[in-house]
# Entry
Amino acid sequence: MKKVLRALATGTLLVGSLYAGVQEKDTRTELMKDMRIMLEAMEQIQRGGLTSSSDEMKAGVTKLQGTLSSLESEEVKIILPKDQVYAYKFAQKTASMLRLYSDDMILSIETGRMDDALDDYTQLLKQCTSCHIRIRNW
# Structure
């Protein structure tokens, strides 16, 4: 009877740990997918700015803002370096600044201030670069 109970306990632990590993991998995959979408959004904003297409710029901003929730969540810790204590807070601050500049960009586009919108794009790009330099050790 003891052997059966041990086997059941061991099996339960193994299944639980495998499930946790799969769940972490899925979360990591989703976060990396969001990073690729952010890159595509930044490219779309730039393309819209260079071709004077405010609609394309706004679509890029909307795409970018749709991914910010993943940076703002606890799940982002999975892709952050474990040895950098400040990494999570820095990611949170970066997400906040991305939201601020992207909101301002929409306002600038809607009021016809394209110079300001392109300045906002520059600030967005600086936030991306800053995070990748500090957290991703580039």
Remarks:
- Confidence is low (pLDDT under 50) at residues 17-22.
- The CA atoms of residues 50 and 118 lie 9 Å apart.
- Residues 2-50 form the longest helix (49 residues).
- The helical segments are 2-50, 54-65, 68-72, 87-110, 114-134.
